[in-house]
Automatic annotation (TrEMBL):
It comes from the Bacteria. Keywords: Transferase. Gene3D superfamilies: 3.40.630.30. This is Putative acetyltransferase. It comes from Anaerolinea thermophila. Coiled coil: none annotated. SUPFAM superfamilies: Acyl-CoA N-acyltransferases (Nat).
Length: 188
């Protein structure tokens, strides 16, 4: 998959050399507090996850989110990852997920820019019709980034997940291609 370039970031295919960063992020409780799976993971588990992901179609491979170095625009620093999940080609639908693992990069708009690049790629390159995601209701930072990228609230699963000794409501958000195109024209 070719790199996807934004104004301040690029998305590139993950490589085995990215596993140490993934492992560091996935084992940081503050980073994973709002993710819908159960960390921590060992190096062995992360390598198995990577190997199984690489057996999927390229459209479902993990992409590394990298920030452009302000002093040297040719240099990039990894800050997280993102991915299309469970693409249903018959109906043109896919789930997406994102993790900004570098806490120093939170609240700087990188999540919103990543989501916009993913939507552009999903609708224009993969020719998807609908892109959706799941997010904990308590994840205000994530919800704000998704709304800024054009996602709309669809509904929720009350007590849809259990983490850290508590049930959590899970919100579902989505973007439809036609709505996104209209939203994008108005946002430009």
């Amino acid at each position: 998959m070719p790199n996807i370039h934004g104004e301040r970031i690029r998305l590139r295919a993950a490589e085995k050399e990215d596993i140490p960063n993934f492992l560091r992020w996935i084992n940081d409780e503050e980073v994973t507090e709002n993710l819908l799976f159960i960390p921590p993971m060992s190096r062995y588990e992360e390598e198995n996850w990577y190997d199984s992901m690489m057996k999927k179609p390229a459209s479902e491979h993990v992409l590394v989110i990298e920030v452009k170095d302000q002093n040297n625009p040719e240099e990039f620093t990894p800050i997280g990852n993102c991915q299309f999940h469970d693409i249903n080609w018959r109906i043109g639908s896919a789930e997406i997920g994102i993790m900004i693992g570098e806490k120093s990069c939170w609240d700087k708009g990188y999540g919103t820019e990543t989501m916009r690049l993913l939507l552009e790629h999903g609708f224009n390159t993969l020719n998807l019709h609908r892109i959706w995601l799941q997010v904990f209701a308590k994840n205000k930072r994530g919800i704000r980034a998704y709304e800024k990228a054009g996602f709309q609230f669809e509904g929720k699963f009350r007590d849809g997940d259990y983490q850290h000794g508590q049930y959590q409501d899970v919100h579902f958000m989505s973007v439809i291609k036609d709505e996104w195109q209209n939203w994008k024209q108005n946002d430009d």
